[in-house]
Amino acid sequence: MLFIIHWSIATENRNAAMARFAKTGGAPPPNLKVHGRWHAVGQNVGFAVAETDDLALVFKWVLDWSDLMSMQVYPAMTNEQAAPLLQATLSQVTT
After folding, report:
1. Can you give the pLDDT at residue 8?
2. CATH number for the domain including 25?
3. Gyration radius of the chain over CA positions
4. Mind spelling out the 3-state secondary structure of 29-68?
5. Average pLDDT for residues 14-24, to the nearest whole number?
6. Based on the structure, what is the number of domains in the chain?
7. What are 20-70's pLDDT values in tens digits?
8. Which of 12, 37, 39 is nearest to 27 (CA)?
């Protein structure tokens, strides 16, 4: 299952978050595949796309950083996964 993980860092935690990231590389728990991370230029926000069938791994990663940043986790689908559902819904809509 895919997850979009959005984070925001309070200004007072910026340096501590940068130091932890420099030390750990922000490594996720083993078996949590991170497809990528994106950092907003000039902002203390960003997001990652991660994949796992074990929700506990996502929770562990969030807990590892929750003392320094606010994180929101959203289950996600690819276009290929969503398209059949969208098409099925549209076929049920009467005009």
Report:
1. 98
2. 3.30.70
3. 17
4. CCCCEEEEEEECCCCCEEEEEEECCCHHHHHHHHHHHCCC
5. 96
6. 1
7. 999 999 999 999 999 999 999 999 999 999 999 999 999 999 999 999 999
8. 37
Are the C-beta atoms of residues 74 and 6 closer than 8 Å to each other? yes
pLDDT given at position 95:
57
Query: Which residue range(s) make up the domain with 70?
Result: 2-92
Query: Is the distance from CB of 1 to CB of 52 less than 8 angstroms?
Result: yes
Please, is 10 exposed, middle or buried when counting C-beta atoms within 10 Å of its C-beta (0-12, 13-18, 19+)?
exposed
What contacts 65, CB < 8 A, 6 or more positions away? 7, 17, 20, 26, 71
**Residue 21 CB-density burial (10 A; 0-12 exposed, 13-18 middle, 19+ buried):** middle
Q: What is the per-residue pLDDT across 62-74, written as a single tens digit (0 to 9) for each?
A: 999 999 999 999 9
Residue type, 3: F
Confidence at residue 93, expressed as pLDDT on a 0 to 100 scale: 79
